[in-house]
Amino acid sequence: MTLSSTLLHLTDFRNPFLKTLVPSVGAAFAIQAAFAIPSILAQSERFYDVSGSLTYLSVTALSLYLPAIRARAAATAVGSLKPAWPSLLDAFTGKGGANGLNWRQVVLSTAVTIWATRLGSYLFQRVLKDGHDSRFDEIKKSPPRFFAAWMAQATWVTLCMMPVLALNSIPRTTLAALPILGLTDIIGITIYVGGLGFEIAADRQKSAWVEAKKNKEHDEDFLTHGLWSKSRHPNYFGESTLWTGIATTAAGVLLTTTGQRGMGLSTTWYGRVLGLGMCAVSPAFVTFLLFKVSGIPLSEKKYDKKYGDHKDYQEWKKNTPVFIPKF
């Protein structure tokens, strides 16, 4: 028996949600550990952010195709013809068979893929230009603390992905019982698109401002125009918003009786509370990190130290909301 077959067997739970959750979480921590070991030895944080994005992409793909992987492995074990991989296009036509996909699974998985690819490439290019990430100047000197940072990233991926993992655990045949399009689908996707657009615009404005400063086109100490005049951290607001959109669309499924049964949960209030928690934990954890851990606190501390005694900085900070934009 191969390693992959063994892992599939060990995670072949009766509960559909656990059958997807356990291997997906295991993959997240395994990938982060694989990047952590050489990075700790080299005391380098260069691949930290890009490894996070690769973990998102890997876990998303695994959760989406896991039923097909299991079906193909089972066919191989008995020497029968392996079923074809499910088509992404068939997800929008209702075809695909027992191991096929539902359009909501494809759309939310694609949403995560777009965000992770865009942000990962942006952060990787930034660290290559800067040569380092100041967040890790002290942490990388301590192997235990540095390893903990990689494991924290695996936890971040797991909790943010929870609504998508839960949705992807439901068989397509079960999801077929839902209406083709619901209000939460429209609201959630709209929120996601708005949040992603906000984050991209904020990052591009910041990059353009930094590049212009390097070219001596201005001598501003900090960015105060564009979206940065509406919020002190518009990129973080966009990130929190897009995960709220993903959670909203997922909640429209996970809180229904169909969704509850598809995950193997009780259809009582307990099951609905659990389903709601799976959705809420994603944007809640992202926002917590941004407000209390690595986002806003580090940025505010850095700029307060540099420009805290500047009147224009004090004025901008006084009149500009820290998070939710004011138009």
UniProtKB/TrEMBL annotation:
InterPro entries: UstE-like. Gene3D superfamilies: 1.20.120.1630. Keywords: Membrane, Transmembrane, Transmembrane helix. The keyword Glycoprotein does not apply. The chain crosses the membrane at residues 20-42, 146-170, 176-198, 236-257, 269-291. Pfam families: DUF1295. GO terms for cellular component: membrane. Signal peptide: none annotated. PANTHER family: 3-OXO-5-ALPHA-STEROID 4-DEHYDROGENASE, STEROID 5-ALPHA REDUCTASE C-TERMINAL DOMAIN-CONTAINING PROTEIN. This is Steroid 5-alpha reductase C-terminal domain-containing protein. It comes from Hymenoscyphus albidus.
